[in-house]
Write a structure and sequence with these properties.
By secondary structure, the protein is α/β, with parallel strands linked by helices. It has helices spanning about 25-30, 35-40, 55-65, 95-100, 120-130, 155-160, 210, 220-245, 260-270, 280-285, 290-300; strands spanning about 5-15, 20-25, 45-50, 80-85, 110, 140-145, 165-175, 180-185, 195, 220, 255, 310-320, 320-330. The strands form four sheets. The protein has a five-stranded mixed sheet, sandwiched between helices. The protein has a four-stranded mixed sheet with strand order 8-13-12-11, sandwiched between helices. It has a two-stranded antiparallel sheet with strand order 2-3. The structure holds oxa(dethia)-CoA (UT7). The site of oxa(dethia)-CoA has 20 residues, from α2, α6, α8 and β12.
Amino acid sequence: MQSTKLNAQITAVGMYVPDKVLDNKYFEEIVETNDEWIVSRTGIKERRKMENGATSDMAANAILDLLKTTSVKAEEIDVIIVATVTPDMFFPATACLVQDKIGAKNAWGFDLSAACSGFLFALQTGAALIESGRYKKVIVVGSDKMTAISDYTDRNTCILFGDAASAILLEPTEDLSYGLIDTLLYTDGSGKDALNMKGGGSLNPSSHETVDNKMHYIYQDGKAVFKVAVKGMADISYEVMKKNNLESDDIAYLVPHQANLRIIDATANRMGIEKEKVMINIHKYGNTTAATIPSCLTEYYRAGKLKKGDNLILAAFGAGYTWGAAYVKWSLD
Ligand code: UT7
């Protein structure tokens, strides 16, 4: 028997950012930098810091925020996918901790590691579970406590990152013109040396030496990553647009990963999309890794800027390298 074809659609959104704000002035006092440099080179004005709690706490708060907006109960959730590079612990998975914290007692779940592309990879994975017909309610949450792995003596990286979490609920629809219509995802591990955290894994188990050598912090060759990120994100966004016969006028919003305003501008230019149609929150939160795209969706939806039927192109580039783009037709009124 032929089973009914299903698409995965986003039926609820939620987010959490910690209260503590680190503005550019804060960094002027701890490293050789200034507000003008940070704003002009990155677009960042502020970012948040989680002072008490971990990635699972932020993820749980984002999901509880989402659940407030829907009739779906925590016990009805089938699967929880946590996209993160800052898990609470190596194991158990952060998804287990989140499941317990929100009381999703009938869910299974797992963590997915794809750095700044984590949300897109998790979206595709969650959508495949829905499309299979086997699962009806999948939570995808991007949550990263980047301040836990930032070196506050390295001006090249510490100014860039912040803490946040944001979640979506995926449910099936038989109307195949809605939801996640298409994705293009790639990995290229030859980029591993440009952006990484070397210490603590099986390659370099934690030791006094790994701590002394600052191997438990983010390392980034910013210039190298910038070059490939501009091309990677612009090319893939254009590709997914063309593959789905979309012109720039057909697109309501580009929803880009928020790493650098200059990378976002280059992507929008390539697609022929004007500034007003690009979701931006980097000025408020910096680069929150897996939380950037869903937090943009949540904020723009809650501000009444998204309407049912809007065509969205989601795009990301990150460590790995990993990159991708997705075409979503928005389902919420
Ligand atoms: O999200 C995952 C993927 N990551 C990205 O997409 C990030 C990609 N890279 C970037 O966004 C940019 O490369 C950065 C924002 C990280 C850096 O901007 P840039 O324009 O590429 O600067 P740069 O690395 O070429 O550095 C230019 C100068 C250097 O000084 P010299 O060597 O020319 O004297 C840096 O030392 O700026 C200096 N610099 C700073 N100056 C003031 C680097 N960081 C700072 C700082 N304040 N915070």
